[in-house]
Amino acid sequence: MSKNIEKIKLSWDEMCESCEDIVEKIKDTGVAIDTVVAIARGGVIPGSIIARAINAKLQVIKASSYGEDNKRGDLEADTVFADGNVLLVDDICDSGNTLNHIERNAVPYSSNSKIYTSAIYYKPNKLHDPDFWSRILPNDPPVWVIFPWELD
């Protein structure tokens, strides 16, 4: 990681507050989410917290575009089979590639299925705007978020 990248360390309390923020935004829209799909690895903990708070089913899928060296590569993602209203949850929407790819490739069980997207942190980008987010990050200067479950 470059020395010019600012690091933000998110505490467990801040993580829980961010999840509560997303839950309130969902409730404010009146949307009833049937299933939360947590995107592993970063979306698993917030997805679990949000699913419990809105009394929705929880599923976990794998998706990653970062290698062990923290450099972005090709996205590999499982397919979501949507039943009812589905909320995709990830820790961060940086380029928008992950949420955009998973949403576009989801397989609905019925015409009534709708997919919503969310992220704790959101960097505005041209590819994908999540439906729900808690915190906005600037695109410049570059920022690297360290989540409480990560070792730095």
Summarize, please:
The chain has 152 residues and is α/β, with parallel strands linked by helices. It has 3 helices and 10 strands; from the N terminus they run βαβαββββαββββ.
Task: Name the features.
152 residues, alpha/beta, Rossmann fold, six-stranded mixed sheet, two-stranded parallel ribbon, 3 helices, 10 strands, globular
Describe the structure.
With 152 residues, the chain is of the alpha/beta class. It contains three helices and ten strands, in the order E-H-E-H-E-E-E-E-H-E-E-E-E. The strands form three sheets. It has a six-stranded mixed beta sheet, sandwiched between helices. Strands 1-10 form a two-stranded parallel ribbon. A two-stranded parallel sheet has the order 5-7. Helix 2 links the parallel strand 2 and strand 3. Helix 1 (12-29) packs across helix 2. The N and C termini lie close together (12 Å). The mean pLDDT is 86.
